[in-house]
Amino acid sequence: MRFSFGKALLPIYTVLALIFLLIPIGYTFAFSFNASDKSNIVWRGFTFNNWTTVCQAQGVCDSFVNSIFIGVVATALATAIGTAMAIALVRYRFRFRGPVSLLLFLPMATPEVVMGAGLASQFLTAGVEKGMTTIIIAHTLFCLSFVVVTVKARVASLDPALEEAGRDLYGSPAQVFWRITFPLLLPGILAAAMLSFALSFDDFIITYFNSGSIYTFPKFVYISAARGIPAQANVIASAVFILALTIVIVSQVFASRKAKKLAAPIS
Amino acid sequence: MAFAAFANTAQAVDAAPRKSSKIALVLLAPGLAYLALFFLTPLVALILTSLQAPALYGDMGEYVYAFRWENYVAVVNEYGETFLRSFGYALIATMAALLISYPIAYFIGVRARKWPAIQAIALILVIAPFFISFLLRTLAWKQIFSDDSWTMETLKALSILGPDAHFTGTPFAVIFGLTYNFIPFMTLPIYTTLERLDTRYLEASGDLYARPSTTFFKVTLPLSMPGIVSGTLLTFIPASGDYINASGDFLGGPSTQMVGNAIQSNFLVILQYPAAAALSIMLMAVILVIVAIYVKRSGTEDLI
Amino acid sequence: MATGTFAESGADLELVGITKRFPGFTAIENLDLFIPAGSFFALLGPSGCGKTTTLRLVAGLEEPTEGKILIGGKDVTNMKSYQRPVNTVFQSYALFPHMTVLENVAFGLHRRGIKDAVAKAHEALILVELDHVANRKPQQLSGGQQQRVALARAVVNRPALLLLDEPLGALDLKLRRQMQLELKAIQTEVGLTFLHVTHDQEEAMTMADTVAVMNKGRIEQMGAPQELYELPRTAFVASFLGQSNLFTGQVVASTSDTISLDIAGNHIVVPKARAARHTGLVTVGVRPEKLTLHTETQTHDAGQNVLTGGVVKDVSFSGVSTQYIVSFPDVGDIVVFAQNMVFGPVVHEGAIVSVSWNIERGFGIEDHPEQAGKFVPDDNTASIAVAQRKALSAELEGA
């Protein structure tokens, strides 16, 4: 094939843009190996120490564990509530469908700072002390709409005839749900849960307004930013990054294998 | 992911909803209760707070209910410029993110179709930033371009920048940070619409005497509108409320404060809840108006 | 009924006064229907005629607004779908994508707690010659294979009544023929009652013992396929089931066994026994293949109807036969099918011809002429789109 500069322009641009996207990640990863003392700004040489002493930097591991805990609980709540709503929105006809959809869209159109300040005002007015519970309440709230949108797409692509076939073949409503509807929605529900967890884990703004004395990992980073972030924070972030990337790559490979297998011609 | 889902909703035709039943109510009830309790009520709380007056002889941070609409006037006087700056920054960052993201999305979604492996890798790289704390990523830029960093010194040595040039603390740095942070949010929805684009339309357009550029503006671009709309909303809304990039500890400085910074400091630092609430309500109202007009004009109302 | 036992044989199906209204429109209007046990019954009609709704009512997937449904004499109107001794082969097959072929076929047996479910499922797969793919996922099968799995999944339960919802619609012509034969063979083999819903008249006629032509929520005519074809009672049946040439005219004479109509000066004779109405303005018809084309002027022969002075407007060759459209002044266009006994068409466009047919071949329909006219079947894509838009807006209103 003849080389054409015009044709190569777009791939070259994309590669450059992707490199640009990855620069801060590479930077964070590299500085997890920095032999830093107090602040982790200037490169002082390579070391594995930060990786072996992750939890020795004050607050890094505690805040990380808090973030995981909050992420898991908020994801479980948002996924359960959101899946039920998604099924209802697609499969049932009821009045006030429009207002309900709008109510679900609004949180996505609300800036985090407004949602954070709103919840904080409410907790203030109601005299609720801010802490783990208030963070979980807040995280469940902003994950909910995303769960509904994600699962809704999956429910909409599910042929209602499949459930009818289940009923036709002597499945009771509960059996039809657990043996047909649920397994078929599972990929959508899992995607929603993963997204939910990612949103919760990385959230800072809403958390900051509603956390009281509890530290999450992003809050730890924010507070430390003023006086210098310990390199151990880079270790945690890099480790999470590698783990998440591995999960995504493995699931991609798995999915494409499966697709190939299904596409294989048979007689 | 949800970004895809955000773009997808327009296509999701309801598959024959037919039962109007109590089951729907049972399924919806927990979610509706949750949203009422923790989304609608807080908005009401915010409105009420925004009208409060300081308690007589009270401590700092103590307020009583009043109908003090003057709070809004005070806030507009004090933060009018900050407001304009916020939307200005958000708008520029959204446009920049769109210009940077569209070619990426086009390459992955259309051009790379023949090579699924490249498509998958590029897509993973686009979402990779989600897997690492955005605070750390933003800090990384700050450090890469800090005044005494070798990057800045190299740029100065090469005379690309003047000898007293700064990066952090400038509007450019804040907009740069916003743009960078929201590129994935812009790229993914556009990618999902382009990925479904039937290339036969492009062939048909070429067949009907359209030059490639005409085909792009008359066929490709209109067909990718749903993705552009969700991408710009997913960027503009959070960007206009963001206060990390503009914060002094990150890429901003005293002259780059956005409305998010004002809300945060009023609420959490100087404990002027009514001012913070009034700012929040105004921010929300302006955004809703902008979103409503935008969604109407772009003809993608079923996005919701 | 649903648990433990198989139906010994097919059962009767009886619909009594069934009406089904959806918000904004009525799908079925006061429908009575009796299908005897062991028969292969086809419900034929254009899309939107209510045939699929009828089937869904029988399956228990919809509830009738009024009326009763009896299977084997037992009232099942208030039974849930999963309690009825009925199985369906869905239009889209609706095979569970997350289960293997075998799991799909065994699903109903497991739900009913039947012993040897797996062995029985294998037997059913052997019946449709697909046992070798028992462990594949449905997506790995071709359309025809999926259709056979869907059939096996339904038949394995030995339902008293098997419902087929356009199961062959997704297949190409050759495969469809093959499946038609297979379906018919299975029906005779297992002796169940089949209720087959289709818009394909050929499919209905080749497979069913009894065909009911449905239109706008009512059954227009019911009977054996030949009977419906040879003696349609309404303009709808005459045009939906094959093609017909229809003429409307005043009855000007009548004998003890014929009536004679005046159609633009021509006398057309129809036997009284084959005409629904004998006086006044009457519409009569004749099938295109019953017509003979003549190039020389025909003398009036008793026992023949003759129209003269037609101009051939169009000739289209379709292998077995050639279709001529002949235009007669004041009468209109008449379609003639001629067998291709010789090489090439007999006449060319522009030729002056006459047509004739045996008066015994004509028929007179029930419809009042004002309503009848030339029927345009309601199955073109535009009208389907309109119907769907109506259904959609009805749904939105109801929401």
TrEMBL record, chain A:
<keyword id="KW-0812">Transmembrane</keyword>
<dbReference type="GO" id="GO:0055085">
    <property type="term" value="P:transmembrane transport"/>
</dbReference>
<keyword id="KW-1133">Transmembrane helix</keyword>
<dbReference type="InterPro" id="IPR035906">
    <property type="entry name" value="MetI-like_sf"/>
</dbReference>
<dbReference type="InterPro" id="IPR000515">
    <property type="entry name" value="MetI-like"/>
</dbReference>
<feature type="transmembrane region" description="Helical">
    <location>
        <begin position="12"/>
        <end position="33"/>
    </location>
</feature>
<dbReference type="GO" id="GO:0005886">
    <property type="term" value="C:plasma membrane"/>
</dbReference>
<feature type="transmembrane region" description="Helical">
    <location>
        <begin position="205"/>
        <end position="223"/>
    </location>
</feature>
<feature type="domain" description="ABC transmembrane type-1">
    <location>
        <begin position="64"/>
        <end position="254"/>
    </location>
</feature>
<dbReference type="InterPro" id="IPR051789">
    <property type="entry name" value="Bact_Polyamine_Transport"/>
</dbReference>
<feature type="transmembrane region" description="Helical">
    <location>
        <begin position="136"/>
        <end position="155"/>
    </location>
</feature>
<keyword id="KW-1003">Cell membrane</keyword>
<comment type="similarity">
    <text>Belongs to the binding-protein-dependent transport system permease family. CysTW subfamily.</text>
</comment>
<feature type="transmembrane region" description="Helical">
    <location>
        <begin position="68"/>
        <end position="90"/>
    </location>
</feature>
<feature type="transmembrane region" description="Helical">
    <location>
        <begin position="235"/>
        <end position="255"/>
    </location>
</feature>
UniProtKB/TrEMBL annotation, chain B:
<feature type="transmembrane region" description="Helical">
    <location>
        <begin position="87"/>
        <end position="108"/>
    </location>
</feature>
<keyword id="KW-1003">Cell membrane</keyword>
<keyword id="KW-0812">Transmembrane</keyword>
<feature type="transmembrane region" description="Helical">
    <location>
        <begin position="23"/>
        <end position="48"/>
    </location>
</feature>
<protein>
    <submittedName>
        <fullName>Spermidine/putrescine transport system permease protein</fullName>
    </submittedName>
</protein>
<dbReference type="Pfam" id="PF00528">
    <property type="entry name" value="BPD_transp_1"/>
</dbReference>
<feature type="transmembrane region" description="Helical">
    <location>
        <begin position="172"/>
        <end position="194"/>
    </location>
</feature>
<dbReference type="GO" id="GO:0005886">
    <property type="term" value="C:plasma membrane"/>
</dbReference>
<feature type="domain" description="ABC transmembrane type-1">
    <location>
        <begin position="83"/>
        <end position="294"/>
    </location>
</feature>
<keyword id="KW-0813">Transport</keyword>
<comment type="similarity">
    <text>Belongs to the binding-protein-dependent transport system permease family. CysTW subfamily.</text>
</comment>
<keyword id="KW-1133">Transmembrane helix</keyword>
<dbReference type="GO" id="GO:0055085">
    <property type="term" value="P:transmembrane transport"/>
</dbReference>
<feature type="transmembrane region" description="Helical">
    <location>
        <begin position="275"/>
        <end position="295"/>
    </location>
</feature>
<dbReference type="InterPro" id="IPR035906">
    <property type="entry name" value="MetI-like_sf"/>
</dbReference>
TrEMBL record, chain C:
<comment type="function">
    <text>Part of the ABC transporter complex PotABCD involved in spermidine/putrescine import. Responsible for energy coupling to the transport system.</text>
</comment>
<dbReference type="InterPro" id="IPR005893">
    <property type="entry name" value="PotA-like"/>
</dbReference>
<keyword id="KW-0547">Nucleotide-binding</keyword>
<feature type="domain" description="ABC transporter">
    <location>
        <begin position="13"/>
        <end position="241"/>
    </location>
</feature>
<keyword id="KW-0472">Membrane</keyword>
<dbReference type="GO" id="GO:0005524">
    <property type="term" value="F:ATP binding"/>
</dbReference>
<keyword id="KW-0067">ATP-binding</keyword>
<dbReference type="InterPro" id="IPR013611">
    <property type="entry name" value="Transp-assoc_OB_typ2"/>
</dbReference>
<dbReference type="Pfam" id="PF08402">
    <property type="entry name" value="TOBE_2"/>
</dbReference>
<dbReference type="InterPro" id="IPR017871">
    <property type="entry name" value="ABC_transporter-like_CS"/>
</dbReference>
<dbReference type="GO" id="GO:0043190">
    <property type="term" value="C:ATP-binding cassette (ABC) transporter complex"/>
</dbReference>
<dbReference type="GO" id="GO:0016887">
    <property type="term" value="F:ATP hydrolysis activity"/>
</dbReference>
<keyword id="KW-1278">Translocase</keyword>
<dbReference type="Pfam" id="PF00005">
    <property type="entry name" value="ABC_tran"/>
</dbReference>
<dbReference type="InterPro" id="IPR008995">
    <property type="entry name" value="Mo/tungstate-bd_C_term_dom"/>
</dbReference>
